Amino acid sequence: MAKKEEEKSRTLRNFRSLSVEEDRRHSFFMRDREESIDLPCSHFPDYPKDSHPEPVVKSGWLDKTPPKGGKRFQRRWVQLDHKYLRYFQNSKEVYSKRMISLQCVSAVQPAGDQRFELITLNRTFLFKTESNQMRNEWIKSLEEVLSSRPQSQHKARSEWIKSLEEVLRRRQQNGGGGVFFKSCLAKTEGLLEMTSPRTKVYTVINNNRIYLFKNRQEYMNGLGITDIDLSKASLKESSKSFSVITPYRTFSFVVESEAERQRWCACLAECVRSSAPVSRVCEKLWSKEFNRVCADCGADSPEWASVNLCVLLCERCADAHRCLGPSVSKVFSLKGNDQLWTEDLIKLFLQLGNGKVNSFWAENIPSSEILNVESSSSERLAYATAKYLKGTFRKQHHLSGQQEALNNALCAAVKGSNIVETFRLLFSGADINSSTGIPEFPTPLALAMHSGQTNQVELLKHNQKSDTVKSEVNTAPSLSGYLFKVASANRPITEQKPRSEFTQRWCSLNAGMFTYYKTEQMTHRCGSMKTSEIICLSLNSPGNHGFEHTLEIYTDAGRVYLFGADDIVTIKEWFRAISMAMLPTALSSVCGLCDRLGRLLCTEGSLGTGWFCLSGSMLQVLLEDSVQDINLLRLHTLTIGDGAGDVVLGWRGGYVHLSFDQRPHFPGWISSLRRGAGSGNEMLSQQQLTKSGIPITVQRCIEYVTRHGLMSAGIYRKSGTTSRVSALLDSFQQDARNVCFSDKFGVDDVASTLKRFLREVKGGVFNGEDNSRNWLKVADVSHHRAKLSMYQNLLSELPEVNRETLKVLLNHLYCVHHLSEFNQMTMGNLGIVFGPTLFQTDGSDPRTYTVVEEMIQNYCAIFNVPEEELQKELDATSLILNKINDQTSSKFAPSLSICAVYIEKKEEGAELLVQVGSNVTAKQLVLQVLEMRGIEPFAEEMWTCYEVQEKEEMERELHFEEKVLPFYFSLGPDCHLLVKKSQYSNDIKNYLSGKNEVYKVGTLRVCEVKGDKNRNFISHQCELTKGTLKLYKDKESSLCEKEWSVQEGTLYYGYRSKLSPPTPWGLILVCGQQQWYFCCDNEDEFIEWMATFLSLQCGENR
Ligand SMILES: [Zn+2]
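Above: inputs. Below: predicted complex with zinc ion.
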């Protein structure tokens, strides 16, 4: 009876609870038609439980209360562990439809036949089993777990407190809390929109798992949907969304802003990282405190490393490093690379590591540039580029810029244990393959091995360029992912493409094919090309199109493809992968660095094409099998034909002639080359530069003032005519290489042009306002020696171009001041003129004057120039000056003047000012110059004076009896005198010595030079005899077409690239305004023709 009563009351209660449950659902969950969210797996695990860390106490099929309105119970796979009761669509699913925190369960009890109920704070769940026995078993298990809660709670609490402290220490954030994580603050939480199925979920990241809730209320009540284990997950980010990819399915979330995405991803990345087991290598490397944070952004526990730069990095910074390419940074994981992480490499990282390495790389970093864990991918890439590729923040080595000294210091350093010194030398420009001078150990690496310096060996090994290239190439490039594409075209894309014109495409690069599809699942492709058909790949500058970052692909057949993405890392990844697939091995080390690369038609080399990689101003050219590095800023010719013309690049190493190509990639190359060659209002280092690395504008103006203005009263103080100064500056900015100082410009115009250039150049010589302020502070220092060393320090921190420019300029100002008796420009006056100019200010700060004045005054000490050297130069100038002062000098008929002469090659500082009387011959000049420079020639050496016509690319040796002065004043603006060892005089002597009668007959290819346009070289029979040069149509012809007297003309030699002569052996005959170009077949012919001509011209004197 009692038993019956009990039964009855229980049924009643059960019924009541059931209806209460229904009621509650009515009142609270009216809109809640779906019971929960279904998250089916795309792959099933071999063992369903392996996704959950807690041991499962009990599991089985149960029927669950139908959702609102439904009559039928739903069959669910239910699983119980010590923390949650979960139910799943089926037994294989990894992601539950519901997970109920046992913390919020207040009771479990039978609810009639085969049924039991689980009562939580605001909701009761009713389950139906197949039998009462089964029901009792479930109740028993649940009660057991519930009764063991305090202990587990206690355990969890201590764990949570730990993580809580961690969280509080790192960032202040309002924790959610709720029953679900009773005593813990979630690391990050908030409402996110999930994309498939499309629904909002309240998302909480905690303890390396993501928990999903239908809303915040359910979160507070301890009712979850499912949780995702991050230890097996990876994270993929794109602009406004991110995906968590697990082995079983991908969860994608949309966020409202970039900042939001970064907040979530930073937290996720940290979880993903910290949940993986710590490797042996990590443990060892992290034993040093400075290795425990990323060298770039400061994120905890960096698990990546650049083995050549010796820094430990977080994953996101490692991505940025990968974009720089392996020739700059070789990035490897600390995990699972046991062969790489030898004990020696680990030792190296313990000795160098982030601490010491950063004190070099990041010595001069402005606080505004410092990264933090929240920095975006593009910020990281910009930072890594500045820090490691450009070396912007690095601490200058005191030998910086002196190649030989650096190399010698490297060879010395590798023998000892000072690894930091070796590191600094390597990254300050020392050549890793410099010769040690020891035949048994020719390279620094061999020397280090011999000296038993394992750390040195390790550092050198990882910085040898060649082996990276190989290892990179072996891993054949393949990549896939979504990009956005516009319809391809057959002409250059010049207009801006809005975002709406781009469509998403699944792209894949594999086995030499680049293919794109509508979606990842599609098998039918939208288009494809072989990588061997790609002739050009170009990275556009950001913001050109609707997508921030875009790249262009040009094919052999003349089609242009434009692909875009929102983040730079994605685009760079594709750029690198495609370029690796298309470039020859010799160039593949640069492909991460350049922004344009491809094949171009060119006349050099036997293949008719060359490979070109352009990165800013650095161009790498591969012709056949030799790679040339060309700094476009230091080109001496860049000729770009109008419209359909060819392009000629001339630099120290020779010439490259690019043939015009009608396909759409060509115009892009032209403008990129132009841009790379420098022009316009750019930084000093981006200007067109001389071979010695200072802006051409500065050099040309200084040269001109030295020649014509040193004694002009008020030079630099007097202003030039504004319109002429503007015109001159304009032409310098367009193309400094081809500026001509015509007669209309006076010295004051040129002097003002120099001042205006320095005043307006971006950043100024002191490299920006911040640095300028540091220079000005020195003016306040009173202690002389402290002052000098401050100047020296500041100087050493300047970029090389700025430093060299300052040196040349101050040398010049020193000379001006030295002649102040005549030009009235004392140091004080020069300070007043150049202070505001160099600091780019209005002149209200008198410290600007002081700095310039002090730098002139202490020129030798600051720039480390030996006093004697400067004194010698000045003595010569003074001497000349005094003599000039005695006489009235006339510009046009001087009996004595100063000539600027260069020795061996034309370079700043090598210029000698020589006093030359009207009767001085070339021979006397040479002797005078050699004496001034203390050069004693060897017996067989023959030094002569050359006239060099830079623009015409030709030169000649002056006859030793030729009078210098009249000739000097006839020189054009692009000409100079050069004293050097004679190139051909011995050959000429040898040839002539065996001859009784001097004459020469033979075939030459001849071209009459009219500007640079005429390039018709036509073979003619030529006859040089008895004082005349005669030209016949051919051997048989007896009719003389042209005749010159050798006395009338002047013979030069050279190779005029603009005419593309068929051979390098060119003789140029100048007769008045006319020029004839004779091309010889080989060097012997060339010498014979020249010898004959000169011998006929000079008779016995030769
Ligand atoms: Zn980092």
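The first helix runs from residue 2 to 28.
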